[in-house]
Amino acid sequence: MKKEKLPYFNYNEDVRRLEAICQRGIWVKPLNEDKIWLSDIAKKILEIKSKERTFPLSFFSASITASDRQHFSTLVKESVRTLTVQSFELRYLYHSNNSRKTKYLQLNFGADKNKEGKMFLMGTMYDITRQKKKEEELERVKEKLDESDSLMNYFLANLSYEIRNPVNTILGFSELASLHDVDENKRKEYIQLAIRRCKELIGLLDDIIDLSKFESGQVTFNIIPCKIESLIGDAVSFFDNTVRYFSKEHVSLKTDVATHLLSHTIYSDYGRLQQVLHLVLEHAILRTEKGVITLGCHKKKEDKDNIFFYVTDAGPRLSQEEQKTLFYPFRKMDFPSGKKAGES
Fold this sequence. Notes:
10 helices; single chain; 6-stranded antiparallel sheet; disordered C terminus; Beta-Lactamase; alpha+beta; Heat Shock Protein 90
Protein backbone atom coordinates (compact mmCIF):
# COMPACT_ATOMS: atom_id res chain seq x y z
CA MET A 1 0.00 0.00 0.00
CA LYS A 2 1.23 3.44 -0.94
CA LYS A 3 1.39 5.91 1.84
CA GLU A 4 2.24 9.55 2.09
CA LYS A 5 4.67 10.43 4.86
CA LEU A 6 3.31 13.14 7.09
CA PRO A 7 4.61 14.19 10.47
CA TYR A 8 1.19 13.52 11.99
CA PHE A 9 -0.44 10.44 10.45
CA ASN A 10 -0.13 7.90 7.63
CA TYR A 11 -2.24 8.79 4.59
CA ASN A 12 -2.27 5.37 2.90
CA GLU A 13 -4.37 3.68 0.23
CA ASP A 14 -6.88 2.36 2.74
CA VAL A 15 -7.50 5.86 4.07
CA ARG A 16 -7.90 7.17 0.51
CA ARG A 17 -10.43 4.46 -0.33
CA LEU A 18 -12.43 5.06 2.84
CA GLU A 19 -12.32 8.80 2.22
CA ALA A 20 -13.64 8.36 -1.34
CA ILE A 21 -16.45 6.06 -0.17
CA CYS A 22 -17.58 8.46 2.56
CA GLN A 23 -16.94 11.58 0.45
CA ARG A 24 -15.34 13.14 3.49
CA GLY A 25 -12.18 15.11 2.86
CA ILE A 26 -9.33 14.96 5.39
CA TRP A 27 -7.41 18.02 6.54
CA VAL A 28 -4.54 18.50 8.98
CA LYS A 29 -3.25 21.75 10.51
CA PRO A 30 -0.18 22.03 12.77
CA LEU A 31 -1.33 24.18 15.68
CA ASN A 32 1.49 26.73 15.63
CA GLU A 33 2.09 26.85 11.86
CA ASP A 34 0.36 28.95 9.23
CA LYS A 35 -0.38 26.07 6.85
CA ILE A 36 -2.97 23.40 6.24
CA TRP A 37 -2.71 20.02 4.52
CA LEU A 38 -5.63 18.86 2.33
CA SER A 39 -6.42 15.42 0.90
CA ASP A 40 -7.62 14.96 -2.69
CA ILE A 41 -11.27 14.78 -1.64
CA ALA A 42 -10.84 17.88 0.55
CA LYS A 43 -9.38 19.79 -2.42
CA LYS A 44 -12.27 18.63 -4.61
CA ILE A 45 -14.79 19.85 -2.02
CA LEU A 46 -13.02 23.21 -1.82
CA GLU A 47 -12.86 23.50 -5.64
CA ILE A 48 -9.03 23.62 -5.56
CA LYS A 49 -7.39 22.50 -8.84
CA SER A 50 -3.74 22.66 -7.70
CA LYS A 51 -1.74 19.42 -7.42
CA GLU A 52 -0.19 20.70 -4.19
CA ARG A 53 -1.48 19.40 -0.88
CA THR A 54 -0.13 21.97 1.57
CA PHE A 55 -1.44 25.53 1.44
CA PRO A 56 -1.07 28.70 3.50
CA LEU A 57 -3.86 28.94 6.04
CA SER A 58 -4.79 32.33 4.60
CA PHE A 59 -5.66 30.54 1.33
CA PHE A 60 -8.47 28.78 3.20
CA SER A 61 -9.49 31.36 5.81
CA ALA A 62 -9.95 34.14 3.22
CA SER A 63 -12.88 32.16 1.81
CA ILE A 64 -14.71 31.99 5.13
CA THR A 65 -16.92 34.73 6.51
CA ALA A 66 -15.66 36.73 9.51
CA SER A 67 -18.33 35.34 11.85
CA ASP A 68 -17.49 31.74 10.84
CA ARG A 69 -13.76 32.39 11.34
CA GLN A 70 -14.41 33.70 14.84
CA HIS A 71 -16.62 30.74 15.72
CA PHE A 72 -14.08 28.29 14.30
CA SER A 73 -11.27 29.92 16.35
CA THR A 74 -13.34 29.54 19.53
CA LEU A 75 -13.96 25.84 18.81
CA VAL A 76 -10.25 25.24 18.10
CA LYS A 77 -9.34 26.70 21.51
CA GLU A 78 -11.95 24.49 23.17
CA SER A 79 -10.69 21.39 21.36
CA VAL A 80 -7.06 22.10 22.37
CA ARG A 81 -8.07 22.78 25.97
CA THR A 82 -10.26 19.70 26.42
CA LEU A 83 -8.94 17.39 23.66
CA THR A 84 -12.52 16.84 22.52
CA VAL A 85 -13.99 16.51 19.01
CA GLN A 86 -15.83 19.57 17.72
CA SER A 87 -18.46 19.89 14.97
CA PHE A 88 -19.00 23.03 12.96
CA GLU A 89 -20.97 24.17 9.91
CA LEU A 90 -19.56 26.99 7.83
CA ARG A 91 -20.11 28.83 4.56
CA TYR A 92 -17.29 28.52 2.06
CA LEU A 93 -17.03 31.15 -0.70
CA TYR A 94 -15.38 30.33 -4.02
CA HIS A 95 -15.35 31.42 -7.67
CA SER A 96 -16.71 29.33 -10.52
CA ASN A 97 -17.37 30.45 -14.12
CA ASN A 98 -16.61 34.06 -13.22
CA SER A 99 -19.23 34.12 -10.47
CA ARG A 100 -19.02 33.94 -6.70
CA LYS A 101 -20.70 30.91 -5.18
CA THR A 102 -21.27 29.49 -1.71
CA LYS A 103 -20.92 26.00 -0.32
CA TYR A 104 -21.99 24.78 3.09
CA LEU A 105 -19.44 22.53 4.79
CA GLN A 106 -19.62 20.31 7.85
CA LEU A 107 -16.31 20.15 9.77
CA ASN A 108 -15.53 17.58 12.45
CA PHE A 109 -12.12 17.91 14.08
CA GLY A 110 -10.10 17.34 17.19
CA ALA A 111 -6.69 18.30 18.67
CA ASP A 112 -3.93 15.73 19.24
CA LYS A 113 -0.14 15.40 19.63
CA ASN A 114 2.32 13.54 17.43
CA LYS A 115 5.26 11.45 18.66
CA GLU A 116 7.38 14.57 19.00
CA GLY A 117 4.73 16.16 21.21
CA LYS A 118 3.68 18.75 18.61
CA MET A 119 0.02 19.72 18.81
CA PHE A 120 -2.03 19.57 15.61
CA LEU A 121 -5.66 19.62 14.44
CA MET A 122 -6.99 16.81 12.28
CA GLY A 123 -10.49 16.52 10.90
CA THR A 124 -12.87 15.83 8.07
CA MET A 125 -14.96 18.07 5.88
CA TYR A 126 -18.21 17.20 4.10
CA ASP A 127 -20.17 19.16 1.50
CA ILE A 128 -23.70 19.66 2.90
CA THR A 129 -24.82 22.28 0.36
CA ARG A 130 -27.58 20.13 -1.10
CA GLN A 131 -28.85 19.27 2.39
CA LYS A 132 -28.85 22.94 3.44
CA LYS A 133 -30.75 23.96 0.30
CA LYS A 134 -33.33 21.26 1.04
CA GLU A 135 -33.61 22.55 4.60
CA GLU A 136 -34.08 26.12 3.33
CA GLU A 137 -36.68 24.92 0.84
CA LEU A 138 -38.52 23.03 3.59
CA GLU A 139 -38.39 26.13 5.78
CA ARG A 140 -39.97 28.20 2.98
CA VAL A 141 -42.66 25.54 2.52
CA LYS A 142 -43.29 25.54 6.28
CA GLU A 143 -43.64 29.32 6.28
CA LYS A 144 -46.16 29.12 3.42
CA LEU A 145 -48.08 26.36 5.22
CA ASP A 146 -48.11 28.42 8.41
CA GLU A 147 -49.36 31.41 6.44
CA SER A 148 -52.02 29.28 4.71
CA ASP A 149 -53.09 27.87 8.06
CA SER A 150 -53.43 31.37 9.48
CA LEU A 151 -55.30 32.56 6.39
CA MET A 152 -57.58 29.51 6.50
CA ASN A 153 -58.51 30.28 10.11
CA TYR A 154 -59.24 33.87 9.10
CA PHE A 155 -61.19 32.63 6.08
CA LEU A 156 -63.28 30.22 8.20
CA ALA A 157 -64.00 32.96 10.75
CA ASN A 158 -65.14 35.23 7.91
CA LEU A 159 -67.08 32.40 6.30
CA SER A 160 -69.03 31.68 9.47
CA TYR A 161 -69.97 35.36 9.62
CA GLU A 162 -70.97 35.47 5.93
CA ILE A 163 -73.18 32.41 6.40
CA ARG A 164 -74.73 33.56 9.68
CA ASN A 165 -75.47 37.02 8.32
CA PRO A 166 -77.86 35.94 5.49
CA VAL A 167 -79.34 33.15 7.66
CA ASN A 168 -80.19 35.66 10.40
CA THR A 169 -81.69 38.00 7.80
CA ILE A 170 -83.77 35.18 6.31
CA LEU A 171 -85.05 34.16 9.75
CA GLY A 172 -85.78 37.74 10.74
CA PHE A 173 -87.75 38.71 7.63
CA SER A 174 -89.53 35.33 7.55
CA GLU A 175 -90.73 35.89 11.11
CA LEU A 176 -91.86 39.42 10.23
CA ALA A 177 -93.71 38.16 7.15
CA SER A 178 -95.52 35.54 9.25
CA LEU A 179 -97.05 38.12 11.63
CA HIS A 180 -100.82 38.56 11.20
CA ASP A 181 -100.92 42.34 11.60
CA VAL A 182 -98.33 43.09 8.86
CA ASP A 183 -99.42 45.16 5.86
CA GLU A 184 -99.60 43.04 2.67
CA ASN A 185 -97.12 45.25 0.79
CA LYS A 186 -94.69 45.02 3.71
CA ARG A 187 -95.17 41.24 3.81
CA LYS A 188 -94.20 40.98 0.12
CA GLU A 189 -91.17 43.21 0.74
CA TYR A 190 -90.04 40.98 3.63
CA ILE A 191 -90.51 37.86 1.53
CA GLN A 192 -88.52 39.35 -1.37
CA LEU A 193 -85.67 40.32 0.98
CA ALA A 194 -85.62 36.81 2.46
CA ILE A 195 -85.55 35.29 -1.04
CA ARG A 196 -82.70 37.60 -2.04
CA ARG A 197 -80.62 36.57 0.98
CA CYS A 198 -81.40 32.88 0.24
CA LYS A 199 -79.98 33.31 -3.26
CA GLU A 200 -76.87 34.98 -1.86
CA LEU A 201 -76.40 32.11 0.59
CA ILE A 202 -76.82 29.52 -2.18
CA GLY A 203 -74.27 31.41 -4.30
CA LEU A 204 -71.79 31.44 -1.41
CA LEU A 205 -72.20 27.70 -0.84
CA ASP A 206 -71.84 27.02 -4.59
CA ASP A 207 -68.56 28.99 -4.57
CA ILE A 208 -67.26 26.90 -1.66
CA ILE A 209 -68.21 23.64 -3.40
CA ASP A 210 -66.54 24.73 -6.67
CA LEU A 211 -63.42 25.80 -4.79
CA SER A 212 -63.18 22.46 -3.00
CA LYS A 213 -63.60 20.62 -6.33
CA PHE A 214 -60.78 22.63 -7.91
CA GLU A 215 -58.52 22.07 -4.90
CA SER A 216 -59.14 18.30 -4.96
CA GLY A 217 -58.83 17.99 -8.75
CA GLN A 218 -62.41 16.72 -9.15
CA VAL A 219 -63.59 19.30 -11.68
CA THR A 220 -64.75 17.75 -14.96
CA PHE A 221 -65.21 19.55 -18.28
CA ASN A 222 -67.81 18.92 -20.97
CA ILE A 223 -66.32 20.24 -24.21
CA ILE A 224 -69.01 21.13 -26.76
CA PRO A 225 -69.41 23.58 -29.69
CA CYS A 226 -70.25 27.05 -28.29
CA LYS A 227 -71.51 29.99 -30.31
CA ILE A 228 -69.85 33.25 -29.31
CA GLU A 229 -73.12 35.10 -29.98
CA SER A 230 -74.89 32.85 -27.43
CA LEU A 231 -72.11 33.29 -24.85
CA ILE A 232 -72.22 37.09 -25.13
CA GLY A 233 -76.03 37.13 -25.15
CA ASP A 234 -76.26 35.04 -21.98
CA ALA A 235 -73.63 37.23 -20.31
CA VAL A 236 -75.60 40.39 -21.21
CA SER A 237 -78.79 38.87 -19.72
CA PHE A 238 -76.88 37.97 -16.56
CA PHE A 239 -75.53 41.52 -16.36
CA ASP A 240 -79.02 43.07 -16.68
CA ASN A 241 -80.43 40.82 -13.94
CA THR A 242 -77.44 41.38 -11.63
CA VAL A 243 -77.54 45.17 -12.02
CA ARG A 244 -81.23 45.16 -11.07
CA TYR A 245 -80.58 42.76 -8.20
CA PHE A 246 -77.90 45.00 -6.66
CA SER A 247 -79.73 48.24 -7.56
CA LYS A 248 -76.80 49.52 -9.62
CA GLU A 249 -78.82 51.82 -11.91
CA HIS A 250 -75.74 53.98 -12.64
CA VAL A 251 -73.75 51.06 -14.07
CA SER A 252 -74.12 50.12 -17.76
CA LEU A 253 -72.67 47.47 -20.05
CA LYS A 254 -70.93 47.90 -23.37
CA THR A 255 -70.07 44.92 -25.60
CA ASP A 256 -66.96 45.04 -27.76
CA VAL A 257 -67.13 42.13 -30.21
CA ALA A 258 -66.32 42.29 -33.92
CA THR A 259 -69.36 41.37 -36.03
CA HIS A 260 -67.52 38.55 -37.83
CA LEU A 261 -66.66 36.93 -34.47
CA LEU A 262 -70.29 36.64 -33.33
CA SER A 263 -70.92 33.84 -35.82
CA HIS A 264 -67.80 31.92 -34.73
CA THR A 265 -68.06 28.59 -32.93
CA ILE A 266 -65.50 27.64 -30.28
CA TYR A 267 -65.03 24.40 -28.38
CA SER A 268 -65.26 24.75 -24.63
CA ASP A 269 -67.29 23.83 -21.54
CA TYR A 270 -70.23 26.21 -22.05
CA GLY A 271 -71.33 26.09 -18.40
CA ARG A 272 -67.85 26.65 -16.96
CA LEU A 273 -67.07 29.45 -19.43
CA GLN A 274 -70.36 31.16 -18.53
CA GLN A 275 -69.53 30.69 -14.85
CA VAL A 276 -66.21 32.51 -15.31
CA LEU A 277 -67.80 35.34 -17.30
CA HIS A 278 -70.59 35.70 -14.74
CA LEU A 279 -68.16 35.79 -11.80
CA VAL A 280 -65.97 38.43 -13.46
CA LEU A 281 -69.00 40.50 -14.47
CA GLU A 282 -70.49 40.29 -10.97
CA HIS A 283 -67.12 41.31 -9.51
CA ALA A 284 -67.03 44.31 -11.87
CA ILE A 285 -70.61 45.30 -10.98
CA LEU A 286 -69.99 45.09 -7.23
CA ARG A 287 -66.84 47.24 -7.48
CA THR A 288 -68.28 49.86 -9.82
CA GLU A 289 -70.50 52.54 -8.29
CA LYS A 290 -70.93 54.49 -11.50
CA GLY A 291 -69.68 54.04 -15.05
CA VAL A 292 -69.41 51.64 -17.96
CA ILE A 293 -68.35 47.99 -17.84
CA THR A 294 -67.07 46.54 -21.11
CA LEU A 295 -67.40 42.88 -22.10
CA GLY A 296 -65.50 41.91 -25.21
CA CYS A 297 -63.56 39.27 -27.07
CA HIS A 298 -60.96 39.27 -29.82
CA LYS A 299 -58.28 37.25 -31.58
CA LYS A 300 -54.59 37.97 -31.26
CA LYS A 301 -52.39 38.02 -34.33
CA GLU A 302 -49.83 35.77 -32.68
CA ASP A 303 -52.49 33.26 -31.52
CA LYS A 304 -55.21 32.84 -34.12
CA ASP A 305 -56.43 29.52 -32.69
CA ASN A 306 -57.89 31.05 -29.52
CA ILE A 307 -60.51 33.64 -28.61
CA PHE A 308 -59.68 35.99 -25.73
CA PHE A 309 -62.53 37.27 -23.53
CA TYR A 310 -62.07 40.29 -21.29
CA VAL A 311 -63.98 42.56 -18.92
CA THR A 312 -62.96 46.09 -17.99
CA ASP A 313 -64.68 48.26 -15.40
CA ALA A 314 -64.62 51.69 -13.80
CA GLY A 315 -64.02 50.32 -10.31
CA PRO A 316 -60.95 50.70 -8.08
CA ARG A 317 -57.68 49.40 -9.47
CA LEU A 318 -55.65 46.68 -7.75
CA SER A 319 -52.18 47.73 -6.64
CA GLN A 320 -49.12 45.71 -7.69
CA GLU A 321 -49.00 44.10 -4.22
CA GLU A 322 -52.69 43.22 -4.35
CA GLN A 323 -52.26 41.67 -7.81
CA LYS A 324 -49.52 39.37 -6.46
CA THR A 325 -51.92 37.88 -3.88
CA LEU A 326 -54.96 37.77 -6.18
CA PHE A 327 -54.90 33.98 -6.58
CA TYR A 328 -53.61 33.09 -3.11
CA PRO A 329 -55.92 30.77 -1.17
CA PHE A 330 -58.14 32.20 1.57
CA ARG A 331 -57.52 35.78 0.48
CA LYS A 332 -60.22 38.39 0.29
CA MET A 333 -59.48 41.56 -1.64
CA ASP A 334 -60.38 44.93 -0.17
CA PHE A 335 -60.96 47.85 -2.52
CA PRO A 336 -60.14 51.18 -0.89
CA SER A 337 -61.90 54.17 -2.41
CA GLY A 338 -60.24 56.82 -4.47
CA LYS A 339 -58.32 54.59 -6.88
CA LYS A 340 -58.42 55.03 -10.61
CA ALA A 341 -60.31 52.82 -13.03
CA GLY A 342 -58.83 49.43 -13.79
CA GLU A 343 -59.53 45.97 -15.10
CA SER A 344 -61.30 43.10 -13.36
